[in-house]
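tool=predict chain=A
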Amino acid sequence: MLKVGLTGGIASGKSTICNLFSQYNIPIIDADIIARKIVEPNQTAFKEIVQLFGDSVVQNNGTLNRKQMRQLIFSNSVAKQQLEAILHPQIRQQLIQQSNQLDAAYCILAIPLLLEADMSDLVDRILVVDIELEQQIKRLCQRDNISLQDAQSIITSQSSREQKLDLADDVISNANSIKSLTALVSELHNKYRALAKNI
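tool=predict ok
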């Protein structure tokens, strides 16, 4: 089975592309969904995070305060590394486990931090959703209701647009209309099915 790693900067439109691929009944394994599940109360990662950062990162309802954690890791590089050391190995394990259970010509592994988490070895091809920096900042500010400065610091903390494009086997520009994106995904779907036959 061909494994396609879908990545791109924050607010680049990865979810839109995943939705377009899912119309072809292609299995999609989303690292963000895995990350949310492993930090639910009573999960190992949740316990390790609370042990490391203290009860202040837990909300009154007993769940992880994701907003506070996000602010912490974007303002503290050591805290970011500590959190990633807890999450990334467990996310990697789940991606391997879930993809190995699939029966399909190809699957999409949606991994926003594919490069940063050094997970490119898990996939056969890398598909990058590309977006102009100005558009990315605007989308991020609107989506998460954050300041321009916060948006810029989040984007800076990720690998650069150039780094992603250097490693890409395929690129989808999200400057296109939804109609154009649908056509591009259709082309890639056919391409990946053809490539999968050679695996």
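The beta strands are 2-8, 28-30, 106-110, 125-130, 170-173. DSSP finds nine helices and five strands in the chain.
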